[in-house]
# Entry
Amino acid sequence: MMMADVFSNLALGFGVAFTPINLLLCLIGALVGTLVGILPGLGTIATVAMLLPITFGLNPVGALIMLAGIYYGAQYGGSTTSILVNIPGEATSVVTTLDGFQMAKKGRAGPALAIAAVSSFFAGCVATVLIALLGAPLTKLALAFGAPEYFSLMVLGLIFAVVLAKGSVLKAIAMIVLGLLMSMVGADIETGASRMAFDIPELADGLGFATVAMGVFGFAEIIRNLDPDAQMDRNLVQQKISGLMPTRKDLKDSTPAILRGTVLGSLLGILPGGGAVIASFAAYTFEKKVSKHPERFGTGVIEGVAAPESANNAAAQTSFIPLLTLGIPPNAVMALMVGAMTIHGIVPGPQVMEKQPELVWGMIASMWLGNLMLLVINLPLVGIWVRLLRVPYRLLFPSIVIFCSIGIYSINNAPTDVILAGLFGLFGYWLIKHDFEPAPLLLGMVLGPLMEENLRRALLLSRGDWSVFLTRPIAAGLMFVAAALLVLALLPALRKKREEVFVES
Amino acid sequence: MSEAESRAPNAMAGRIKGPQDFYGGLALMGIALFALWAARDLQGTSGFSFGPGTVPRMAGIMLLLMGAGVAASGFFTTGAPLQRFSIRGPLFVTLAILSFSVTIRPLGLVVSALASFFIAAMATPETNWKETIIVGVLLTAGCSLLFPYALGLPLELYPPILR
# Structure
């Protein structure tokens, strides 16, 4: 019965995704995502934020298909630069540089790129099936959730984000709280009262999420890269990339790593607050632990490419599960997807699964197709991507500034949005200089309205009794896990372990 | 990300062991106080129902405490020194963004984008003007085709006199 559901859902999805226009949008999204993902200094979040406006003119299904394509395309581009120039285009491919670039130096860039693509594709296939399997039951669960459960789940998600992030737990929580605070600027949802907007009309509707994202991720990153001491050494691999085919030994070595990376990545992706970055780190560390020759990691072993690349792709895709079933974005990119859906008048959550199944399943099916396209198209295109890497930064960054500015302007046709993004760029530069992570800030900003609404509703229903979070079993369980995680993260022993994991980079 | 850090000399900050966190925490406390001040007039909790001001105040107080915590850890435990802020990059990138937002409505995309491109290019000493002009013109032409025509976004291309 359930399996039949899964197949009929996937069939519906492929029916939607296989229309010529949607196939084309998926292809364009994946290619443009790769192109921008390869450019240094623009991470996945900035890429998706920057390209958001190009999907405005499309219908909702097409826009989501294209955005999803941009998202995994950007991830793919990130791993390409990791391997070829030792610059991770994305945070998710930081660990890929460790062995990927070493392989490239030994003249084995081709097999490294091929294995990265194959492992991403395999992980994508597994994750697609997983989304299809878990989508329906989780949606049923979500419909049973009340306000206290939703609030507790989001608390848990934020705690997860803190525990799994690198650096100081305290600073990460501070960034989340700052994000929550920023989300409250503008009209109050329930009473309509203007909050912290100082009668500035542009602030009346609140701070735009894409505006802030573009500022703290796009502009801030550009400004930081212009610092005289941040000049990227672009020791591009000069050898010609010949022979993409991995040897039989490569395949034999990487298969178990791909399998383990996929499992680990899928699990971490589903958890709210998890996501692709931590998945790639965890997979690399785990692979090193189980390897018979851990000392060879970092010298160019194929497992060191296969494990993190499969893990980050699996996690990138399974992180759609909490978004689609619960309406909770588990990371900043998913938060941008919420923004995109809102622009098209869709409120993500269990209702979408029930009422607009063609939207959800069409997107899921297109993700699989997009991964296949990336595998088939990108490997032959490696030569073009390499040439793109040779574009000097002095020409690249003014172009990115202009492109981002036009992008932000076109969201609301509001010049003030562009100024705000510029101010947030300066603020983001300051954050970088004080070692504050902007990602938790964005997560807090996105979850803010949802959390406030559910907290208010929960306390209204319980007549102001805070124990509602402890007397309802699911809410209490989620709160307990959150508290336990926080305590664990603050324990000195585990703190040391966390640092060890992140020292790898 | 490659984390190239410049260690600024911190002779004056002798007693503060981790200036980066200390001043970062202080600034967060400042933001929190500002937010609490901005939310001062909002109605708080009445009975058991939250007012529009309840949650902002809760968040403001939490941020104040977190900021204090970060500042305290910067004061008592050895940490990173302050990093040097550069001026040229942030200045010209911000000016470019400002010039774009001020001119896009009255002057249209072509003039606005081209001018901002050149202002942004001044952010680095490496700029070679010949190639910058060529790339700037090409990019402006590309954007003028992409946004209004290919994507159908409502953008004016030219100043009003030429329309």
Q: What stands out?
A: Chain B has a mean pLDDT of 84.
